[in-house]
Amino acid sequence: MNRINKIKVIFTFFLTILSFCAYSQSNVFKVTLDAGHGDHDFGAVYSGRIEKNIALAIVLKVGKILELNPNVNVIYTRKTDVFIDLVERANIANRANSNIFVSIHCNANKNTAADGTETYVMGLTKLASNLEAAKKENSVITLEKDYQRKYEGYDPNSPESMIGMTLMQEEYLDNSISLATKIEDNFEKLGKKLRQGGVKQAPFMVLHKAYMPRVLVETGFVSNPTEGNILNSEEGQDDIAKAIAEAILSYKREYFGSGTEVPESRPIRDTSTPAKPKTTPVAVTKSAPKGTFYKVQLIASIKKTPLEPKNFKGLKNVTMIFENNIYKYFYEETSDYEKAKKFLQEAKGKGYGAAFLTATKDGEKISIQDAIK
Ligand SMILES: [Zn+2]
């Protein structure tokens, strides 16, 4: 073999190794599990039921079930009783390029009759009860050094103040709601053990900082004597962990494939792209007009809001579509790209900092790049 051929063989060998590594990488579903609180941050404590311990026990059990699956890579923000900054928890998931982020907590309320599981997705809310949960979980940042600088002056006592800094990436919201729904549905299967509080939306800092489908599970109220004892028991934790792990695996099968297929025969869907709508989008306003149109997407939400200017910071001509169990709200509509950009600036000026342009051609969603062409 001459020198050139030798180099060729070595080169081909390395290329094969590289592509194999790339393939196995893309075939692995990465889950970041976050056990809330830790060390001097106990979370909620009622009659010896300690949130940080319960959250960690459940996380370790969820991880153990997931790790039985060779195509799942579990990343833990903590596996022991240590304190970790909120932003670092999200960054652990960001650095790992995690496919999903699941933060696990317990709820608490002065009213010890309060009970039920709640699974949160990132978003805005005016509901006092949802804001209460976010306020409680976000307040742990005050235990961190230099939190005011780190969190851009964010005031944990007014979770609403996150609205300005919130990015409402719709693809994360679609997938986050899907995962949250699976978790809550599985809690329901536990029978009467835990009341199913359902999927909710609130501005949680730890979710805000994670750039992937993300949910925060309040597994029940430690303040409620009956529910608290379930949460604090080995059996209760096993049940909850199983419900969460199975929901994660079901999500993986739906959005990522089973991990056993050859990519050519069935493409594995990247979870960073939105899931295909299961239902045909329902246009609330009018039937699709011919031609290319631009609209400004203001927000996406699981709540239906009447299309009145007072609900949209004074913006008129707001329309809505219901797609994938999510309401999406749009401002204006124009076939002129320059005008569309002005509408976008207007929306941002009103406080919709994460608003973005969307485009349709003959009623079908297309990319902005294609629309401009
Ligand atoms: Zn908590």
Automatic annotation (TrEMBL):
SUPFAM superfamilies: Zn-dependent exopeptidases. Keywords: Hydrolase, Signal. It catalyses: Hydrolyzes the link between N-acetylmuramoyl residues and L-amino acid residues in certain cell-wall glycopeptides. Its EC number is 3.5.1.28. Residues 90-249 form the MurNAc-LAA domain. It holds the Pfam family Amidase_3. Residues 260-282 are annotated as: Disordered. InterPro entries: MurNAc-LAA_cat (IPR002508), N-acetylmuramoyl_amidase_3 (IPR050695). Residues 1-24 form the signal peptide. PANTHER family: N-ACETYLMURAMOYL-L-ALANINE AMIDASE, N-ACETYLMURAMOYL-L-ALANINE AMIDASE AMIC. This is N-acetylmuramoyl-L-alanine amidase.
